Structure formats: C-alpha cells, structure tokens
Amino acid sequence: MRRAIAVSALGLGTTSPNPPVGCVILDSDGRVIGEGFHRRKGEAHAEGNALAAAGLGARGGTAVVTLEPCNHVGRAPACRALLIEAGIARVVVAVIDPTSRGEGGVAELRRAGVDVEVGVLGDEAELVLRPWLTALGRGTPFVTWAYRADSEDDRRVPALDVRGYDAVVGPDGQLREGTPGGHGDTFVLPGELPQGEPEKVLQALYAAGARSLLVLGERGLAEQCAAAGLVDEVLVHLPDRASSSPGGDLSPAGFRISAVRRVQDHVLVQAQREDAPFRAR
Predict the structure, then answer these.
(1) All residues at 6 or more sequence positions from 151 whose CB lies less than 8 Å from its CB, including other chains
(2) Pairing mode, if any, of strands 115-118 and 175-177?
(3) pLDDT of residue 61
(4) Which of 132-146, 207-221, 249-263 has the lowest mean pLDDT?
(5) What does residue 231 show for φ and ψ, rounded to 5 degrees?
(6) For residue range 136-166, what is the model confidence (pLDDT) as tens digits?
(7) Among 25, 40, 108, 32, which Cα is nearest to 68's?
(8) Of 129, 126, 88, which Cα lies nearest the Cα of 109?
(9) If you average pLDDT over residues 104-110, what whole number do you get?
(10) Using an 8 Å Cβ cutoff, are 34 and 50 in contact?
(11) Which of 35, 47, 68, 177 is the catalytic position?
(12) Which of 46, 53, 89 is nearest to 67 (CA)?
C-alpha cells in the first residue's frame, strides 16, 4: 500500500477534477508485477494502468489501491469491472470513495466473489488525497498559502515547485496552471482571477476543475482567504538571520506545524489547519 500511495502522488497537479489514485498488482505468489496511477481525466484510471502493466499474471492475484475502485462508466471503464474481468482474487483498499455510484465498487467486487479488505493505511493515503477530499466536501479548492516570515514584499517569496498544484496565483495576481497544459482539455481556468468575495472566487475555480490552489505572497487573494478562514495549509519561509533577533509567529492561529525542513538558504515551516474539514471514513 505504501508503494501505491507513493505512485498515486505522481498524478498530483494533473488529475483534477478526478482524484489522484495509485494501484499495485501482486501475482498469486505475492510478487509485484504491475503498478499504475491516474494521470488525468479521460485517461485510464490507476487500476487500468496497473492491470495493463501486469498482464495475464494478474489472474488470481491482488490489487492494492489507494481509493475504492470506481463503480461507474465515464470516459474510462468502471475499475471494479476491470478488476473482475482480469481475474483479481483480492482487493486491498485504503480509502472509501465518497463519490462512488450505487452500492459502491467494494460491494460489487464482493458480490462477484472477490475478497476485499478496506481501511489499510487510510491515514497515510489521505496525505495525497487530502486536497481532493477537502475540495469535494466544501465545493472550493484546497488552499495552500506560501509567504516569507520576514518580508512585506510578495516578490521575495522563494521559488517553489508548483507542479503538484492545479492552479497557482503569483504575487502579481496572475492565475495559471501549476503544470501548464497538464490537465488536458478537461480543465480550463479563467483567463484571469475572478473578482468578488473569496469564497465565490474559489467556487469559480472549483467549477473550472481546480481542486488545489497555491497562493504566493501575503496580499490580494491570500489575505482575503485567510480572513475568511479558507486557507487549509501554510508554507512559511524563514530566511537565515545574521543574528538571533526574535521574529513573529511562524503560522496563523488554528494551524498545527506538520513539517520543518531546510531548503537552500531558508527554513520551510509547513502547517495544517487543526480543524480538518473532512474525514474519509
């Protein structure tokens, strides 16, 4: 499952509005013979890619997947049907899909005689699924706010790898995809940032397909979202100091530090909202 979780993260920044999912296939002897992830809407899901990699060796084997196999046919086949047709004997699931149709993929798999185990490393799988699950439950993207702890100049926010985010608002207020063109033709951001109340702005981005948003700097949309309680995560950059002079708080009230690491010439403090707006189970 931890391998499936790691693989699922390869889809961050391109899968939305679909969830980032990973799958690992074991043969009947427990050996890994295939793995896959969902890259973008309209293309094969994680299970389909993993089964294609595994080939005939999947018969009688196990599928380990981070999110419940889907139970509906869209631009890609229903994953529970693919698993049944491939002869998979056992399916291990981390998180149940809150969007599953009918009785759900797990119920259909069990009805077909497949052994299914649910809830394996669900908390760890949620680390990748969190933005999608949060956005799904709220109707607005998961918002990450990045800023420097010692500067009022938004242009001095250190460079970040933005490819894992669906949308990015820079210090200049310009809106763009984290991975330009990464979502294909199923995802079209507005030409410019919508105007209005922050929740309405985020709702417009959600309607466009964005499930995660990175806001760089402290002004504009970042201030509005923070004031409205719509920020889910902060990335605070603490530059090297020539002296031990005190600084301000490293994260807003109501946030819990989840990671601290050194990045080039500064320390990056990551903090999450304490009142997470979702639980997957």
Answers:
(1) none
(2) unpaired
(3) 98
(4) 249-263
(5) -95, 130
(6) 999 999 999 998 887 666 666 777 889 999 9
(7) 108
(8) 88
(9) 93
(10) yes
(11) 47
(12) 46
In the chain the first and final C-alpha atoms are separated, in Å, by: 17
Residue 241 or 88, more confident: 88
Unique residue bearing structure tokens 């420097």: 148
**How much is the pLDDT for 238?**
86
- Residue 226 tokens read as 């923070």
User: Is-contact 242 250, C-beta < 8 A?
Assistant: no
Structure tokens at 129: 């699924």
Joined tokens for residue 235: 């990335």
SS3 content of the chain, % helix, strand, coil (to 5): 30, 25, 50
Residue type, 60: G
The pLDDT confidence band at residue 53, using thresholds 50, 70 and 90, is very high
Residue carrying the six token digits 């793995």 = 35
* pLDDT of the residue at 212: 98
Count of alpha carbons within 13 angstroms of residue 90, beta-carbon side: 12
Please say if 47 is a catalytic residue: yes
Torsion angle defined by CA atoms of residues 122, 123, 124 and 127, in that order, rounded to the nearest 10 degrees: 110
Pairing assessment for the beta strands 115-118 and 90-95 based on DSSP bridges: parallel
Q: Which residue has the tokens 């990551």?
A: 270
Supply the pLDDT for residue 280: 39
